[in-house]
Amino acid sequence: MNPNPNQALWEKGDFTRIAAGMRESGEALVQTFDIRPGLKVLDLGCGDGTTALPAARLGADVLGVDIANNLVAAGNKRAAEAGLANCRFEQGDASDLKGLAEQSFDLVVSIFGAMFAPRPFDVAKEMVRVARRGGRIIMGNWIPNDPTLVAQILKISSAYTPPPPEGFVSPMTWGLEDKVGERFAEAGVSAQQVSFARRTFTFNVSGTPAAYLAVFRTCYGPTMNAFEAAERNGRAAELQRELEELFNSQNRSQRADRTSIPATFLQVTVAL
Ligand SMILES: C[S@@+](CC[C@H](N)C(=O)[O-])C[C@H]1O[C@@H](n2cnc3c(N)ncnc32)[C@H](O)[C@@H]1O
């Protein structure tokens, strides 16, 4: 077994299958980042490049870093297929970016990525360390107890999963403005430098909501773990029902052969 549970969780599934429904919103989000040719961008917890590739298409020089080796390989493959020589991916941990020099990026982006790394104070410190003064950090973080899709998937899943080890800090705390402020303050950033906005990210896929849920059940680490635990307790059908109800009720597509589910997130922008 992988000794790093954080890495094991994300290598367990195949996040590329989920990310297929995130491309349109990922690209639209990147369009708002004011990316110019030559900008040096670090995408942390980049997955297979939902935000890294669009940033590179806008001319940025992009490094994607992710804890999961399978997603790093998938990202490099997608960049090569797209002919993007200015976009590369390597394995690394957002809470310890050894090998990356101080102030070496104009923009550090992390969309639903670094929030999943352990040791959030170290994550904030590392993001601030590798970003240059005058540069920016932009995070997209899911919000605890928000009624929309991802916050609810994680909430429902956690009710079926054994309690986390002592000292574990929930990734969802990155969706709380006061916690985010504390973490950046420890990294030497003043409250005036940090701003917040609530935005919407839409998951768009062909097929029914139930079919997209099946992808989560087989490919998304946190949901896979929840189903494994629920199966051990004879509660898998109950979990399936709860999630099906969630996916169906959140679906906004008018077409029977498409699923479109908007989800609210907290965008954090740090001006250094
Ligand atoms: C929900 S996915 C989002 C991926 C991508 N940013 C996107 O929007 O498609 C979370 C990503 O964070 C990565 N991740 C989790 N913990 C990490 C860590 N400690 N360091 C770097 N990446 C991490 C996972 O491997 C996964 O690719």
Describe the structure.
It contains 11 helices and 7 strands. The protein has 272 residues and is of the alpha/beta class. Strand 4, helix 6 and strand 5 (131-142) form a beta-alpha-beta unit. Helix 1 crosses helix 10, helix 7 packs antiparallel against helix 11 (236-250) and helix 9 crosses helix 10 (221-232). It is globular and about 50 Å long. The chain starts with a helix and ends with a strand. 42% of the residues are buried. Residues 6, 10, 15, 19, 22, 26, 44-47, 50-51, 65-68, 71, 93-95, 111-113, 116-117 line the site of S-adenosylmethionine.
What attributes characterize this protein structure?
272 residues, alpha/beta, seven-stranded mixed sheet, 11 helices, binds S-adenosylmethionine
Radius of gyration over C-alpha positions, nearest whole angstrom = 18 Å
Please give the order of strands in the largest beta sheet: 3-2-1-4-5-7-6
The ordered string of helix (H) and strand (E) elements is HHHEHEHEEHEHHEHHHE
In the predicted model, the low-confidence regions spanning at least 5 consecutive residues are: none
The helix count comes to: 11
Q: How far apart are the termini?
A: 40 Å
Give the beta-strand count.
7
- Largest sheet data: 7 strands, mixed
Measured by DSSP, the beta-strand proportion falls in 15-25%
In short:
This protein has helices at residues 5-12, 15-19, 23-31, 52-57, 69-81, 120-130, 149-158, 177-186, 209-219, 221-232, 236-250, and strands spanning 40-44, 61-66, 87-91, 105-111, 131-142, 194-206, 258-271. The protein has 272 residues and is an alpha/beta fold.
